Amino acid sequence: MFTVNSKPLPRIGYGAMVLEGFYGACDDAAAVQTLQHAIARNMMLDTADFYGAGHNESLIQRALQQAGKTSGNSAFVATKFGIVFEEDQSGNQLDTGWGFPLTINGSPRYVARAVDNSLARLGVEQIDLLYAHFPDPGTPLAETVGAMADAVQAGKVAAIGLSNASAQQIMQAHEVHPVAAVQYEYSLFRREAEVDILPAVNAIGARLVCWSPLGAGFLTGTVDKLAEGDFRNANPKLQGENLARNLQRLEGIKTLAADLCISPAQLALAWLLAQGDNIMPIPGSRRAARIDENLAALDIELSADTLRRLDELAPRGAFAGGTLV
Fold first, then answer.
1. Using CA of residue 281, residue 287, residue 288, residue 292, what is the dihedral sign?
2. Structure confidence by residue, pLDDT tens digits, 80-97
3. Is 51 annotated in the active site?
4. Which candidate in 46, 79, 149, 321 could, as Cys together with 177 as Cys, close a disulfide (CB 3.0–4.6 Å)?
């Protein structure tokens, strides 16, 4: 269990991005039911103002209200700001490794506005954990973090974090205000965080919150082709020859999971948990049963031999294709 802001949390959280149609259509009523299940399991809910242009945060408000939760109980909500999605707002272009740019705004004025808007959409008095979604290439990071610290001082935010930041930026931000968590892509599918991100996180005593801990679903063993309109089509690891090669490598992981009588997803999550006590994966799902399956990974302890075998099957850089950041 983690204890964050005096709230005990399981070491596996819930990523709500999956409820916004990135992986296919999702009904609002069903989405709220899924969120309610995650709340009942005391999971951290991870969202962002960008997901559904605010819609995802509004879904969480509905789930919190229907579950009878208020800001004074154990419901824990983390959200992110910085990706510009409103027509009347501007920012700076950030290139990604997935073939499309993002417009990022980390100016103090934008931060203050985003915090107030997220509070209203979530229907809470305080955001438990606020991340800068991406560092703004046109705004000094100290200014962005300073504005986040102002929100903490005002009681609107309990703790702050960074998402998709470099090791150097993590250290710089922590000098301005304590960074409680860093969100970064980390899984058997992409292990580059081990080079410098995880050491930086460990150095400041923060938590590494792993987005895409199942490789955008790839490590579940159920992704061999993607529907038109699925945003994962932009992921180089899931395209053409890269996908074919990666599917071949995945077979060894699936076989190992079968030998252990667990699912490939559970194996991938248990591996992440074994990488450090401060690591928290946030898989997303639209099904309550899948959430429970993911949480069952908390009770799986992998042997040294199994961990060694996974290092052989999926060493750093083994899966072909580029990354988002």
1. negative
2. 999 999 999 999 999 988
3. yes
4. 149
